[in-house]
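Supplementary Methods. Inverse-folding protocol.

Structures were first reduced to a discrete structure-token string of length 313. This string, shown here, constituted the complete conditioning input.
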């Protein structure tokens, strides 16, 4: 999604990334409220169906590049996305939106170690430092005074493993394919799995879908948190350097806490704040290796203008 005006796109790139991080951060407390009346699988089924249709319409010109192998590729990464979102959403029912936001961010630290298993590429010292910081932060956030952990926090940490698996899977199946078109099929298959899960285990919430207090949050999740944020992320990353993009997108968890405290009434203690800070530093360390500190004085011509990440909030 390149433009004929690169200077304009570079100016818009970082605001787009900030907007994507904020939209995803705000979706945690909205999801928490919506779960009170919407079963998990049907909520995700509607969200991903709408996302697939909207993104499919937005990138309609991309359909000329369609080949049948998009189907199996979409089915694989859509499966990981479905597992990640499902476990995260079930976990959200058993924890606070702010803890759910920060514990989900642990996936950034897991990716290098998972990639090591798949591609035999060893993690570097920054990845190991990030893991130590992250584990410490998770302990501060999740462990109670009696050194126990809630089932919601456990599910959220499991979802982080699925998110990391999703990113590694995308790295394996996306080369040579249009990322927008691949994302359409990813959403479509995630929706299919969610419809099947809902049909087997839940009752369709037909009555809830007629209520304005349910329809508006669902519209926000479908349009803004699934389609608009993803477009902003992809376009923003193409027109900014990878290190900056990673730092800005990792603010999703910070925005998640701010929105949860302001609009949901989440309690925040000094220990939680310390844990959040450690996880945030771990994410920045893992994603950027603090290159933005070392490269601040580098000439603009040496910076890469293209990066490739994948996330859903």
């Amino acid at each position: 999604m390149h433009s004929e005006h690169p200077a304009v796109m570079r100016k818009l790139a970082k605001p787009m990334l900030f907007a994507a991080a904020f939209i995803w951060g705000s979706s945690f407390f909205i999801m928490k409220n919506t779960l009170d009346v919407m079963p998990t699988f049907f909520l995700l089924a509607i969200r991903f169906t709408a996302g697939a249709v909207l993104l499919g319409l937005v990138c309609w010109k991309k359909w000329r590049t369609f080949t049948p192998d998009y189907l199996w590729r979409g089915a694989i990464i859509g499966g990981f996305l479905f597992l990640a979102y499902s476990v995260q959403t079930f976990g959200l029912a058993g924890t606070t939106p702010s803890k759910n936001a920060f514990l989900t961010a642990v996936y950034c630290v897991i990716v290098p170690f998972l990639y090591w298993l798949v591609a035999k590429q060893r993690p570097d010292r920054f990845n190991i430092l990030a893991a130590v910081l992250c584990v410490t932060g998770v302990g501060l956030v999740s462990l109670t005074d009696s050194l126990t952990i809630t089932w919601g926090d456990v599910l959220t940490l499991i979802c982080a493993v699925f998110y990391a698996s999703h990113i590694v899977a995308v790295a394996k199946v996306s080369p040579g394919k249009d990322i927008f078109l691949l994302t359409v099929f990813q959403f479509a298959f995630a929706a299919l799995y969610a419809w099947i899960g809902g049909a087997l285990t839940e009752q369709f919430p037909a009555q809830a879908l007629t209520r304005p207090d349910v329809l508006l949050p669902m519209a926000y999740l479908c349009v803004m948190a699934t389609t608009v944020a993803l477009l902003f992320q992809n376009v923003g990353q193409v027109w900014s350097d990878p290190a900056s993009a990673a730092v800005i997108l990792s603010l999703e968890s910070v925005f998640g806490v701010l929105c949860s405290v302001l609009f949901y009434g989440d309690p925040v203690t000094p220990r939680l704040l310390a844990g959040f800070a450690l996880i945030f530093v771990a994410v920045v360390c893992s994603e950027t290796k603090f290159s933005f500190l070392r490269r601040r004085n580098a000439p603009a011509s040496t910076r890469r203008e293209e990066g490739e990440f994948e996330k859903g909030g």
